[in-house]
Amino acid sequence: MATPVLSVRHVSEFAADVRESLTKPGQRELPSKYLYDEVGSALFETISVLPEYGLTRADSRLLRRYAAEMVGQLPSPVRVAELGSGSGKKTRWILEALSQRQMTYYYPIEISPHALAACEKELGQIDLVSVVGYEQPYLEGLRSVAQGRAQHDHLLVLFLGSTIGNFDRDAGDIFLREIRETLRPGDALLLGTDLEKAVELQLLAYDDPAGVTAAFNLNLLARINRELGADFDLSSFRHEIRWNSTDRRIEMHLRSTRRQSVHVPAANLRISLNENETIWTESSHKYKAEEIPALAARSGFRCETQWIDAEWPFAQNLLIAS
Ligand code: AVI
Questions:
Q1: Using CA positions, which residue lies closest to atom 2 of ligand 1?
Q2: Mapping DSSP to helix (H, G, I), strand (E, B) and coil, where does residue 120 land?
Q3: Ligand 1 centroid from CA 199, angstroms
Q4: 305, β-bridge pairs
Q5: Which residues make beta-bridge pairs with 79?
Q6: Quick one: which of 105, 134, 142, 258 has the fewest CB in 10 Å?
Q7: What is the CA radius of gyration of the chain?
Q8: Which of 206, 248, 250, 252 has most ligand 1 atoms within 8 Å of its beta carbon, as the pocket-test mutant?
Q9: What is the whole-number distance in angstroms between the Cα of residue 162 and the centre of ligand 1?
Q10: Nearest-5° angle of CA 94, CA 100, CA 105?
């Protein structure tokens, strides 16, 4: 009977987070981690192949081109843990390169069971690669992996796709420090960071003409309707993207097109939204390549090497725990 208990806990956590963020004084918010239910994860997979969203292709291109070089800079033997593996497609290059020199243990850490299953299927077939998934939040999963390794095993943590950009900058620093605390000197973190580029390109990447990102954003309200019994009228919200030049981030909002009230029974919540009021659903911070070494140093790493994509400014940064 473990499953129902767990799902009740998840529902009440979700309900509490929705209640707290929607009633925040000033700007209403919703936590971006809830964008990724089964529908949201499928929509994100589609976003990642849109012509306007170059981020995932740049991330994969760098891994494909430089996997051998990256692996050549790692300590040995090394086990691989990935935070938020998604379907794991782009990790193949690193695992294939590593498996040329050693039996490779790969631990995807992912809260979406669907993505985790897809990842295990995709990567479990590579020769000399053993895959053990952890359906846990990032740090919990990483601690389990770190505690389970032998004294002589190093760890390579993959945090790809510029997911670090979805944290506020201070929270990102704290998160990297928490990763560092699970590691030993000489362990590695491969960190993907999307770099600043022309504002029009950045806006289009998050407001594609086919409306996939709009559907991804609106699905958050649909998910609250499905899982918490809410009555959000999706046709009365509009997807909105802003470039915040002070904080150098894309902000994703949902704008209420009319005055309306919403009931979220499982969160014991009723709110009234004004016409044009927005709910802030996600931030995607963008970086300058030159700021990464300082970011690494603040968190107890040194930035060993950066690989930058020529087509879509994006950096893979190899950080070594000092
Ligand atoms: C997962 N994350 C890095 C994506 C991003 O670009 O911030 C999520 C996303 N949101 C809208 N499009 C993609």
A1: 163
A2: helix
A3: 16
A4: 318
A5: 155
A6: 258
A7: 20
A8: 206
A9: 8
A10: 60
38-47 and 212-228 helices, crossing angle to 10°: 170
Q: Mind listing the pLDDT tens digit for each residue in 153-212?
A: 999 999 999 999 999 999 999 999 999 999 999 999 999 999 999 999 999 999 999 999
What is the CA 140 to chain-centroid distance, rounded? 16
Tell me how many degrees the CA angle 57-72-87 measures, rounded to the nearest 5: 35
Distances (CA, A) of 247 to 29, 194, 286: 17, 14, 9
Question: How many angstroms does the Cα of residue 212 sit away from the middle of ligand 1?
Answer: 12
| pLDDT digits 0-9 by tens, 138-166 | 999 999 999 999 999 999 999 999 999 99
What's the full length of the chain, in residues?
Answer: 322
Q: CA–CA separation, 278 vs 220, rounded Å?
A: 14
Q: How many CB atoms lie within 10 A of CB 289?
A: 16
312 within 8 A of 197, measured Cβ to Cβ: yes
Please give all residues whose beta carbon lies within 6 A of any atom in ligand 1, as ranges.
47, 55, 161-163, 165-166, 206, 213, 216, 282, 284
Give 150: exposed, middle or buried? Use CB within 10 Å, 0-12, 13-18, 19+.
exposed
CA distance 72 to 315: 18
**Reported pTM:** 0.95
Structure tokens at 251: 């902000």
The closest-lying atom of ligand 1 relative to the alpha carbon of residue 205 is 12
User: Is the Cβ–Cβ distance between 254 and 289 less than 8 Å?
Assistant: no
